Amino acid sequence: MKFGKRIKEQIQESLPEWRDKFLRYKELKNLISSPALAESIFVGLLNAEIDKFNAFFVEQEEDFIIHHKELQSRIQRLVEKCGHNDEMFREEISEIRKDIVNFHGEMVLLVNYSNINYTGLAKILKKYDKRTRGGLRSPFIQKVLHQPFFKTDLVSRLVREWETTMDAVFPVTVVEAEAERCAAVTSAAAGVGIFRNTVAALLTMKEMRRGSSTYSAFSLPPLNISDSDLSSPIHIP
């Protein structure tokens, strides 16, 4: 699949309030084909896009940190109330579990947001260099690697932490796990809920990070996700 189509589909699959935060890939591609192309204008637009990515990413990251602490406090209070008798608080446990799954999904979406915008920048710069026979891509990408939106270590760590928390604090039986999986897959098929968005993001990340004949120093490293992982609403290695 060509990248222009991929990013268009990913924007459509993203959360509605995120859709104007992605790279304006088509506009930049059309500019490269324009007879009036000037490097100063092109670089100015790219810098504006990076500023947009950084502002959105940092805002989301800060919200995640706050939500992370709030969920931890809720779990702590619940554990203190439940003790060893969780039957009395089954509904509250189920509600917190759903909140964690949604939180996990949003964080996966943000990692994908970083990946797809970085990949888009690398590809549009490659087209620019081919059109102008210049060498803008390498130094510009070196700058991108130090931008806040590219640094997903914190969010990725939170993703892993919440997977561990789910397994440790809210272990589910085989029946419950299958019921949750079926409900999530049904929601995805119906096109509702964050699960559908998360699966689309995972598929995109897997595709972008898959080794191929076009792999280069500007490509993201391969992502090791099996197909079975894509059917689970919470587990992402």
UniProtKB/TrEMBL annotation:
PROSITE patterns, sorted: SPX
Top-level lineage group: Eukaryota
Domain SPX: 1-142
GO BP annotations, alphabetical order: cellular response to phosphate starvation; positive regulation of cellular response to phosphate starvation
A Pfam entry, by short name: SPX
InterPro entries: SPX_dom (IPR004331), SPX_prot (IPR031142)
UniProt protein name: SPX domain-containing protein
Species, as recorded: Arabidopsis lyrata subsp. lyrata
